[in-house]
Amino acid sequence: MKFITKIINNTIETGIGQSIIAFAAWGYSFFLVVVVLYYAVISLIKLISGNKN
Question: How confident is the model at residue 4 (pLDDT cuts 50, 70, 90)?
């Protein structure tokens, strides 16, 4: 019983850390996608309007 409790506790501790790392990685990826889309839209607007700077 103590062995099972130890395994459960280790899994919970490790799982929380992995969840934080995964959430941070997804957040960073989302941020990069937003930045890329922003610059893509700005570039399209410049191209369509004929303002080639």
Answer: confident
